Amino acid sequence: MRLLRLLKIIFVVLRFGLDEFLLAHSRTRWLLVPINLLLFARDTSAPRAVRLRHALENLGPIFVKFGQMLSTRRDLIPVDIADGLAKLQDQVPPFPSAQAVALLEATYNKKLNEVFRSFEEIPIASASVAQVHFAVLPNGREVAIKILRPGIARVIAHDIALLDICASLIERWWEDGRRLKPRKVVEEFEKHLHNELDLMREASSASQLKRNFANSKLLLVPEIYWDWCTDEVMVMERMKGLPVNHVDALRAAGIDLPTLAANGVEIFYTQVFRDGFFHADMHPGNVQVDADGRYIALDFGIMGTLTDSDKHYLAQNFIAFFRRDYKRVAEVHIESGWAPAATRVDELEAAIRAVCEPIFDRPLREVSFGRVLLRLFQTSRQFGIEVQPQLVLLQKTLLNIEGLGLQLDPELDLWKTAKPWLERWMSEQIGWRGFLNALKIEAPHYAILLPQLPRLLYQTLNEKPGVQIANVLRELVAQQKQINQLVILVALILFGFSVLYFIRG
């Protein structure tokens, strides 16, 4: 099975002239001549990016998905290939409905009509690893059922192994192979694919996002019906809306497109900076709009997460960027460890200014985030800045936001829309509200720590006798002073609130 699959891959590679990627090395370039003579019928006149895209489409859904993911890694691949792969479509032929029915009946150990009041056998959507059918639960609720493709795990395991072989060859024989790190790309792709194969994981992501946006006037997330969910089947609320890229239909439905575009920006920044948990696959097929102008999020297989540290440094970067404070942008890169400590601030500042300054005061239709990110990646390589793996999905999502915003409102000013929200968020993080929130979080820790101080002191003195005792005592005294200062500050704040309450009362 794997041998036949490998032979097909080799045939497709040769048919579309992709051997030039492997044989571009000076030691193997001579092999191109006999290959071209043997395969005289092949047409290699099309650009290499076009030929690569057609080859992935011929190899099947897993390779198509790999191409889609690879198109977001503009830090690793040439721009022409990234642009070409970005054109890959999500439409994949569905698997037979009889297989979907058989899988559901095996999952529930019941006949389908005993599980659902009705079931639409023709799928409404089909993707690389799953397809979606509409149904109605016994209680009358309309649902969407996501079903994994039968045997997809085995297919993915085989294809990943072959992709790794191809990546190894590229890394060894292509001149740019080592710099582009193809095996690392395959490893990252495998991780995301395995996450998508666990529909319970996807259901929990949807549930978390719904909780984050509970009672939101901007975003709707379908409810998950856990009693019907398994690793291979996810049952969720059926959402009814218009695809976000059907602009004429949205306009005819009375949707305010500029407001919709601005709301999309706010949703993005809320997910990233408030929650550190964001939908990372926001292409038009996964986003709808309801009759009230609220976004509807679908397909939660790819979600991004950020730590508090990532959020803090990102927010500082964005705010400094919006203020055109390029020196601060450079300083934040160095402080965060994203740039080497020996980097000269003035040189990095000048390079960032050259990339960013031309895009300000322009509507979205005149700005390409793709080009901006590409130039930033080039600057990163120049200064030895390593691309942060946790930010790759964020970069991908930014490109999705650009595409959606451009379709909805070409005059949208992303900077003016985002800047007030970010400044408000930062004031809540580092102002008095931020202090109170941090205090609320740390209070249980101090409540546990304070009674333990005498015992900890005794243990420490026994473990570190002699000359070290003085140093230990000094450390403990300093810690106690900090705790005392905190207690006094909390008391003053509470007293101030009491006085305000008394005066207003």
What's the quick description here?
The protein folds into 4 domains: 2-89 and 165-179, no CATH class; 96-148 and 198-238, 2-Layer Sandwich (Phosphorylase Kinase, domain 1); 239-430, no CATH class; 441-504.
Strand content: 5-15%
Please estimate the helix content: 55-70%
Largest sheet: 5 strands, antiparallel
The beta-strand count equals: 11
What is Rg?
28 Å
Q: How far apart lie the N and C ends?
A: 80 Å
Q: Pairing-aware structural class of the strands and helices? A: alpha+beta
Taken together, the total number of domains comes to 4
Low-confidence stretches: 499-504
The pLDDT mean sits at: 77
Pfam families: ABC1
InterPro entries: ABC1_dom, Kinase-like_dom_sf, UbiB, UbiB_bact, UbiB_kinase
Domain ABC1 atypical kinase-like: 87-333
Keywords: ATP-binding, Cell inner membrane, Cell membrane, Kinase, Membrane, Nucleotide-binding, Transferase, Transmembrane, Transmembrane helix, Ubiquinone, Ubiquinone biosynthesis
Keywords:
disordered C terminus; five-stranded antiparallel beta sheet; 4 domains; Phosphorylase Kinase, domain 1; 8% strand; alpha+beta; 505 residues; single chain; 22 helices; four-stranded mixed beta sheet
Describe this structure in words.
With 505 residues, the chain is α+β, with helices and mostly antiparallel strands. The protein folds into 4 domains: 2-89 and 165-179, no CATH class; 96-148 and 198-238, Phosphorylase Kinase, domain 1 (2-Layer Sandwich); 239-430, no CATH class; 441-504. The chain has 22 helices and 11 strands. Strands 1, 2, 3, 4 and 6 form a 5-stranded antiparallel beta sheet that branches. The chain has a 4-stranded mixed beta sheet with strand order 5-10-9-7. Strand 2 (125-126) and strand 3 (130-136) form a beta hairpin. It is globular and about 75 Å long.
